[in-house]
Amino acid sequence: xxxxxxxxxxxxxxxxxxxxxxxxxxxxxxxxxxxxxxxxxxxxxxxxxxxxxxxxxxxxxxxxxxxxxxxxxxxxxxxxxxxxxxxxxxxxxxxxxxxxxxxxxxxxxxxxxxxxxxxxxxxxxxxxxxxxxxxxxxxxxxxxxxxxxxxxxxxxxxxxxxxxxxxxxxxxxxxxxxxxxxxxxxxxxxxxxxxxxxxxxxxxxxxxxxxxxxxxxxxxxxxxxxxxxxxxxxxxxxxxxxxxxxxxxxxxxxxxxxxxxxxxxxxxxxxxxxxxxxxxxxxxxxxxxxxxxxxxxxxxxxx
Length: 303
Known about the structure:
The protein is an alpha/beta fold. It has one domain: Aldolase class I (TIM Barrel), CATH 3.20.20.70. Strands 3-4-5-6 form a 4-stranded parallel beta sheet. The protein has a 3-stranded parallel beta sheet with strand order 2-1-7. α7 links the parallel β5 and β6. α2 packs parallel to α3. It is globular, with a radius of gyration of 18 Å.
């Protein structure tokens, strides 16, 4: 994948019976690439991953591949709470040609040691096989269990061909900055908020939930920065950050899905799986009005 660039943790559309709407999924993936994404990350937090079964995830990734999405541009989320299931899902994605997988630490037991987490990832690599390619997924606000920089550095040092990167969704710049000091580790902040500062220290871009709707603007920030037009990049970055912060005031997954339902005219986009609840039409209209006041227009999407 091109680096630096924007990767979208793609939202998962559901039919009214809450099965995965595969055709809509493929169409949205294609649109994201048209908007400037260099990759997609199916079944991250934004994709309601922990509400989707292993076989469902495998079938959905297969639908993306069969629908024309290059698997080399995909980093599916495969993190579950045990080695066997995580390895099975990871192996299936890698066998389809996916660039890598993105894996949570085992998140059920809290207060575990770094040595215990190291043992888990070591066993995971042995189970997947020597061709494992793993991005660690650090999201302590949700998983509670994290992957601190010292552990990430140890894993990358001992398994440099298998532990290739990390997505840092901590929201803690000091943590991101420490990760960027690890030689050879690819680092993606989990938001566009620190994008330019992170790129100045070698970040590969960002993996951002709001790329589902705002990918073109985020990608333009990256392009302007890479072209050396730092002033223009920073000006646009301020606009991009306002979009992210406004959507974050709502429940971001139902909010973005409601906006996509409005943009596409397809009400299925508003569907979420329990325990999430769909955003109401009225609440979505309120958000759309606020975005309009902030001079951001919902794209007219026709898949």
